[in-house]
Design a protein that fits this description.
The structure is a homotetramer.
Chain A: E1 25-38, H1 40-45, E2 51-53, E3 59-71, E4 84-96, E5 99-109, H2 112-121, E6 125-127, E7 129-132, E8 151-158, E9 161-173, E10 186-191, E11 204-217, E12 221-229, E13 242-265
Parallel strand pairs in A: 5-6
Antiparallel strand pairs in A: 1-3, 1-13, 2-4, 3-4, 4-5, 7-8, 8-9, 9-12, 10-11, 11-13, 12-13
C-alpha cells in the first residue's frame, strides 16, 4: 500500500485532496446533439489506429452539454463549483472490427476536475468557455419553450477565440433519439513520456471503450439545426466542419461511470510528436 | 440629437456596441430566497437616508439567482454568454414614510453587462463567482429533486475569497412565497464625481424605487435554511450575518424591467468618501 | 452628510466596501502603443458632439497596457488581484475648438474595479480578456529582449471572440515617444436613465477632459507594428480597422489621477438608443 | 507509427492540437520563495514512498511564480494566453537514499496547458487563481521597488476560497539564494486506472526526478517573510502551515525542460483511494 492516498493527483495523507475523487461518478445534464456530416477524408484522418471509416461516410455529431456531476458522497451538490461544468465535443463515426462505434477527437470543458476526469477516460479535453441557452418553466421572452419554435443555442470559445456555434429550432417531440452519437464510444487514453529521447513513446496509449450504467433519458425534442466551426491556429477543428447538417435533439440525460474497458494496449506505438502549428 | 448612439457606454455610430442595450429587459431565473434576521443595529446602519428601521428589527433576505435575460431582440438567447448570469444579494427591510420597503446593500454578479445594468437601477453590483445547485428532470444522485429532501445550495466568492454559503433542504410546497424580499425595493442610484476637491459630491445620488411588469412565478417549495456570511477586508458584509435563519424558498420567477421611479433626488448630498479598509 | 459612506457603489457604514475607492489613484504599467490610420469617415463617425476631425485624417492609436494600480493606502499591492489589470483601447484624433485632442471610443479591461473606475472617467469600458507579452531580465527563448529584434504582442477577446491582435518587432531606442495618443484626452462621461419614456435622456452626458499628474516614463523603444481588428456582432470596432500602420512604441509609464474637467455638460441631449445589433 | 500525431491529448492528423506541445519547454519567471518550517510529523505524512524525513525536520518552502513559457517555435510569445501563467506551490524537504531532495505535494496554476504539462512532470496541479505583485522600472506608489523596503505579495485561491497569502519586505541583495527549494526535486508521476475493481491500481505511479538545463538566475533580493495557509474542505494544505517562517527571496529564473528521470517505477502499488473529504 502506498504512503499517500487518493484516486488522482494530488495524493495526500487522507486522500481528500484529489482533483478527481474515486469513481463512481454520477452525471446529469441537458444535451443538444447536432447530427451532421463532415468531409469523409477528414473524418478518416482523425481515426485512431484500429478504427475504420463508417459506412455512412463523414458521419459526425456535435454536442453541447450543461452538466452537473458528483461522487458518491454527493458533497459537490452543496459546493456546486465542484460539480457543474459545461462541455462541447464532437464524435465521429467509425467501425472497430466491423462493429459500429464512435470516437471523440475534440472536447472542451470549463472546469479543471472535468478536464482531468476526461483524460482518465480518454477524452482529449482542453479548457474552453461554453455557454448553452437554458430552459425555465415560465413563459418569458428570456426563456425559450421546449416546444415548437423553441430556439436553443450553444457557443464554444477557447484560447480567446470563438470555435463553435450550434443552434436548434425545436419542431416536435421525437419518436427516437439521435443515432450519430449512439454507437459505443472508443477513445484513446494517452499519457506522454518526458524522458529525453523518448518523447515519441507515450507512457500510456490505449484504445478504450467507455462503459456506463444507470442510463436515463428524458423525453426528446428534435428540430432543425445550425452548426458552424471556426478556424484557429493550434486547432485542427475546422477539418471536421459540416458539409451537411441533419437534425438536432434536445433532452436531459443521466448516467453513472465507474468502469472503462481497455480494447487494445497500444503503449509502445511511436508517435509523430513534433508538428508545429 | 447626439452624434453617437446607444443606451449605455460605449456609444457608437449605430448604437450596437452598448454594454447594456436599451430597455425593456426580460428576465427569467431560478431563485433561492433565504429569510433571516441580522443584528438590528447593523441593519439600521446600512439604510440610506430616508429609510427607517422596520418594525420586525433586523429582517433580511439572502438570494441566490441563476438568471437568463435578454433585450427585446432576444439575440442574447442565441449568444447565451450575453444573457446568462448568476447573482447573490441581500435585501434588508425598512420603511419609507411608513411604507414597508426593502433595500439592497450588497450584490454580486458574474458578468459585466449585469454589473452595469445593475448600477443603472441602483444595485451596487460587484463581480463575483456564484454557483447554485441545479435541478434536472431525471432521478440522479447528481441532481436533487424539487421535492421533500431535495438539497440545493449557493456559494459566493469575490476578490478570491469565499463570502457566502446558503443551502436548503426542501420540505413541502409552500402556500405562499417569501415575505422578507416582498416589499417594494428602494435603492440608491449613485455615480461619483472625479473633479478635484469635489469627490464627496456625487454626480448622481438618488433614492429610486424599482418598477417591473409581467411578473410570473412558478410553484414554490420551502424548507429549512442554512446561511453563512464570511469576513473579508474591503467588505462590510459580515455586519449583516444571520443571528437567526428562517425559511428558504425555491421557485422560478420572470419579469420585465423598463422603468425606475426617482423617489428623491439626493444629488448634492455630501458623502464621507475617505474611509480606508 | 449622507448616512452611508464611500466613493462608489456599494456604499456602506464605514465606506470600506466601495468597488472604486476614493482618488487619488496611482498607476504604473507597461505600454504597447501602435500608431495607425483608419478610414477617416469612420473615425469622424465615432466623434462625440463638439469634436471635429483631425487635420491628419483617420489618425488613431491602439494601446495594450499591463497595469498595476492602487489607492493612497497602497493596500492593493498586498492583494494584487485588487490592483492589477490589463487593458486594450483605441484613441482617435480630433480637434476641440481648434485644439488637437484624442478621444477613446472603445476600451476593454479584465477586472471589475477597472471597469467602474473607467466609467467614472468617461472611458467606455467593457470586460475582456487581454494578454501581453512580458519582459524578464534574463536571456531566454521564453522572454523577448527589450532590444533590436525583440517581439512583443497583445491580444484582446471579449464575448468569447477574438477582437484585436497587435505586435511589434523592436528596432531601436526612440528619440521621442508616440504622438497619436499624445494630445489631451476628451471623453464622454455618460450614465443612462431608466425612467419609462425617458430612456433617450441620459442622466449624465458630459464632455470631459482627463487630468493627471506625476507623469513618468521609462526609456522608449520603437519598431515595426502589426495590428488587426476582428469583427463581432455587438461591436462596431472593425469600422476603426487600420488602413495603414505606423510605428509601435514600448515603454513603462506611471501617473496619478484625482481630477477630471467637465468641458461641456451635454446632459439633456437626446440619444438614439434603440439600434439593434 | 500511430495514425494520429501529437505529444499530448488531443492527438490530431497534423499534431498541432496538443494541449501540451512537444518538449523542450522554455521558461522564465519572477519568483518569491518563502522558506519556512511546518510540523515535522505533517511533513513526513506527505512523503511518497521511498522518501525519508529531512534532518532539518519540517523544512519547507512556499513559492509564488509569475511565468512566461514557450515551446521551441516560440509561437506562444505572439499569443501570450498560450504561454503565461501564475503558480503557487509548496516543496517539502526529505532524503532519498540519503541524498537531500525536495518533493512537491501541492501546486496550483491558472491555465490548462500548465496543468497538463505539470501532470506529465509529476506536479500535482490543480487550477487556482494566483496574483503576485509586480515590479515596474518607475518610481510609483503603485509599484514597489526592488530595494530595501520593497513589499511584494502573492495570493492563491482555488475552489472559490482563499488558500494562501505570502509577502516580503525586501531588505538586502542576497549573497546566496534560497536553500529550502534547492535540492533535487522528486515527484510522483501518477495516472489513475478506471477499470472496475482496479481503481486502487494506478495505471502509472512512478517516483521521478526533475531534470532541467540552461538554468539562469538574476540578482537575488531577500527580506522578512509572511506566510499564511488557509483551510478548505477538499484540501489538506493547512497540515503544512508554517510553525516558523524564515527568509524570503525574490529573483527571476529561467530554464529549459525536456527530460525526466524515472527513479523508481511504483506502478502496481495499491492506493487507498476511497477517502471522502
Amino acid at each position: 500500500m502506498a504512503h499517500q492516498s487518493g484516486y488522482s493527483l494530488p495524493l495526500s495523507p487522507r486522500g481528500a485532496a484529489s482533483l478527481v475523487p474515486a469513481p463512481p461518478w454520477h452525471y446529469v445534464g441537458d444535451f443538444l446533439v447536432i447530427e451532421y456530416w463532415a468531409d469523409p477524408a477528414a473524418v478518416a484522418a482523425f481515426l485512431p489506429e484500429g478504427l475504420e471509416p463508417h459506412a455512412d461516410p463523414g458521419r459526425c455529431a456535435a454536442l453541447f452539454v450543461d452538466w452537473q456531476s458528483c461522487s458518491d458522497s454527493g458533497e459537490e451538490l452543496l459546493e456546486p463549483a465542484r460539480g457543474q461544468y459545461k462541455e462541447f465535443f464532437i464524435v465521429v463515426n467509425a467501425t472497430l472490427d466491423g462493429e459500429e462505434v464512435t470516437t471523440c477527437p475534440y472536447i472542451w470543458v470549463d472546469r479543471d476536475f472535468a478536464l482531468a476526469r476526461g483524460w482518465i477516460q480518454g477524452f482529449p479535453k482542453k479548457l474552453g468557455s461554453i455557454h448553452i441557452t437554458r430552459y425555465f418553466p415560465l413563459a418569458s421572452r428570456a426563456g425559450p419553450e421546449v416546444g415548437p419554435g423553441g430556439r436553443f443555442a450553444g457557443t464554444l470559445a477557447a484560447g480567446d477565440r470563438r470555435l463553435a456555434f450550434g443552434a436548434v429550432s425545436l419542431e416536435r417531440e421525437a419518436e427516437s433519439g439521435p443515432t450519430h452519437n449512439d454507437a459505443p464510444l472508443i477513445n484513446v487514453r494517452h499519457f506522454p513520456r518526458l524522458e529525453s529521447g523518448r518523447h515519441d513513446e507515450p507512457a500510456l496509449h490505449e484504445l478504450v471503450r467507455a462503459r456506463s450504467r444507470d442510463r436515463q433519458i428524458s423525453p426528446i425534442w428534435e428540430g432543425a439545426a445550425e452548426l458552424e466551426l471556426f478556424a484557429a491556429p493550434y486547432e485542427e477543428l475546422t477539418a471536421l466542419a459540416p458539409v451537411r447538417v441533419g437534425n438536432v435533439f434536445r433532452f436531459a440525460f443521466a448516467y453513472v461511470v465507474d468502469d472503462l474497458e481497455t480494447v487494445q494496449d497500444l503503449t509502445g506505438t511511436r508517435m509523430e510528436v513534433g508538428a508545429e502549428p
